Hints:
The complex is a heterodimer.
Chain A: E1 8-13, E2 18-23, H1 25-31, H2 34-45, E3 59-62, E4 76-81, E5 88-93, H3 97-103, E6 108-112, E7 119-124, E8 127-132, H4 142-152, E9 159-163, H5 166-169, E10 177-179, E11 183-185, H6 190-196, E12 199-205, E13 209-210, H7 215-231, H8 233-240, H9 247-252, H10 274-281, E14 282-286, E15 296-304, E16 312-318, H11 321-329, H12 336-349, H13 353-368, H14 374-377, H15 387-399, H16 403-408, H17 412-419, E17 427-428, E18 431-432, H18 440-448, H19 454-457, H20 459-468, H21 475-495, H22 507-516, H23 523-543, H24 569-584
Parallel strand pairs in A: 1-6, 7-12
Antiparallel strand pairs in A: 1-2, 3-4, 3-6, 4-5, 7-8, 9-10, 9-12, 10-11, 14-15, 15-16, 17-18
Chain B: E1 3-7, H1 18-25, E2 30-31, E3 38-41, E4 49-52, H2 61-65, E5 71-73, E6 79-81, H3 91-95, E7 102-104, E8 109-111, E9 128-132
Antiparallel strand pairs in B: 1-9, 3-4, 5-6, 7-8
The complex binds iron/sulfur cluster (SF4) (2 copies).
Amino acid sequence: xxxxMLSKIxxxxxxxxxxxxxxxxxxxxxxxxxxxxxxxxxGEECPTGADPLGPENPIIFTVGYFDGVFPLGSKAIxxxxxxxxxxxxxSHGGGRFGVAQRMAGYxxxxxxxxxxxxxxxxxxxxxxxxxxxxxxxxxxxSSTVGRIIRENEGGAGLRxxxxxxxxxxxxxxxxCVITETYRHFGRLGLGAVFGSKRLKAIMISGRDSxxxxxxxxxxxxxDELFKTLTKSPLMKKYHELGTPMNVLPLNATKTLPSxxxxxxxxxxxxxxxxxxxxxxxxxxxxxxxxxxxxxxxxAALRVPYESEPYxxxxxxxxxxxxxxxALGSMLDIRSVEGYLKLMDTVEELGLDAMSTGxxxxxxxxxxxxxxIGLAETAGLSLRWGDYKAYMEAAERIVSQRNEFYKALARxxxxxxxxxxxxxxxxxxxxxxxxxxxxxxxxxxxHLVGARHSHLDNAGYSIDQKTNAEGRRPAPAEAARLIxxxxxxRQVLSSLVVCFFARGVYTPEMVSRCFAAFGKSLAPENLxxxxxxxxxxxxxxxFREGFSFDRLRIPKRITEIxxxxxxxxxxxxxxxxxxxxxxxxx
Amino acid sequence: MVKKLSVIDVDLxxxxxSCMFACNRRFAEAGVARSAIHVQSVGGVEHGFIxxxxxxxxxxxxxxxxxxxxxxxRKDGGVLLDYTKCIACGNCVKxxxxxxxxxxxxxxxxxxxxxxxYCASYCPYGVIRLEEIExxxx
Lengths: 585, 138
Ligand code: SF4
Ligand code: SF4
């Protein structure tokens, strides 16, 4: 197969139990792959006003030209309509899925309809099996599901197994999809869309070897990239401590939200720092397929059995900055064991860690303020730091035993619309807040980002730069920088390379890589494609009812100082309008 | 001096598969279908990895089971494969109990490590290394 040729789309209709493939090379020529092709297919396949949990909502997985070809070309993109925000659902996942999909020969996979009973899919080069998953449905832990499918299917080492937990089955709006135990299609509720289709899991495996128009150039570029990615200081932080290296610096600059952002500093930062966890708990390192950086850090936690003295088990639990922020700092959990146990519960249930942490921290503050009481929580008192209560609360969000937990299962935007506490309900565009109270650009980025995620445009990094210069970005300037960054990230997420390699995959570098495929794409053309993809995403958002005017700015972010001082609502609005002009321009 | 590829410490392996992609790049192609080295998890990534490489056996079973004479013994261990004689029967794959004979799906023939060491230079953690084989008295 020619590495410069992506064309095959696999369609699976779960209602009719049919599948077919279509060759659409022009789609990949125009929109690259990944996010670019994903948004085109979403526009085609998702009817306007679709119920996100109805059979009409498609799930689309895409890969790009760099998957399995250049180092850190390790990611896949999922597109769907989000049950959490009601508009664009997009999440990026690592693990082995992207490479396995590319090696199976599919540029995109479109899953539609709804199965009668629980199923899982086994996809290989040229074959699709729809297998019964009744036995897997309702299983307590997502990791057990992985274990069973691993035993049932071939292709070890060349496959990926993604699955949902109980949260997805029970349609929690921020249920995630887990791949290879430790990576996720995390945000915006893909797990619930799986659940609504009674789709428990997908196994995909493939073996392929791709040829080049310029084989010599390919090897040269690969070596250059490999060297930079393994030796350069750009990647050092991900390699050594992994993302938890952020805990201490963010805490030191008073930009790490704690206790539902009543504070921007966390009392347990030293305890839950990347350094401290590494020293006492790091049990294993692992990597996504085709990535020499291996940023995935897994802690080993030895837990005694309460019922059986002299029995212990060792749980392997991954830790990253974002979950430490959401499930540690926001809930003021100051012990590694407490944090890891809560993290483990959230993983086994298949909830998005960030949304879960923000929802629980809102509920804790609402309880403190008397907006809700034991009647709502069914006797559970939520107190900062009490990880056992939070573990129980996470279970209850999934089982949805009463109206209150049903509301929590729909996210903090919805819960606060029912119970009050809007001012401290930390969601942007309906998606729960990431952990960076760095200043204007960070929160502006969450407001205007197509997914309302920090990864859309890394506004925090714009803040960090200007903060270091001791100034504050003007709203229009921040909006422009955010727009440019988000537009370029569309290209990276269309290839699909990990954002951690963004410093290496510059427009010039990407353009040179395309030459190995015999394609000429100037850096300027690439940038323009990025803008087009971003605008197309917004077109989808608008079509589904999103409007910049109706964004809600949680008052809390303007009440706690940032390194730039207090943020002003008017300034954030000014930034939103400037961004809207760029999107509509 | 004859060399062979050895696994130094499999517990250091992170499962990045850089070695598999490297072996495939010997043909200046991207992917894994032509790779002679294989890495898989031990029942889930949380339990670590297995790195399957040719052991450069002195008395190689794959050689013994090849019916067409396509596999010959290499001096001091390991084998050489003559693709023109290979009838793609797959006996060598079954004969290797460590699973080190892979199948090249692009040409439908086996792929057996030639101990060139190309993969080792891409292993970021020194899991695999090219080592000299002590000469064997014959
Ligand atoms: S030594 Fe050479 S042939 Fe053997 S696995 Fe490594 S790259 Fe492949
Ligand atoms: S390159 Fe090294 S660390 Fe990576 S999979 Fe191969 S042996 Fe393991």
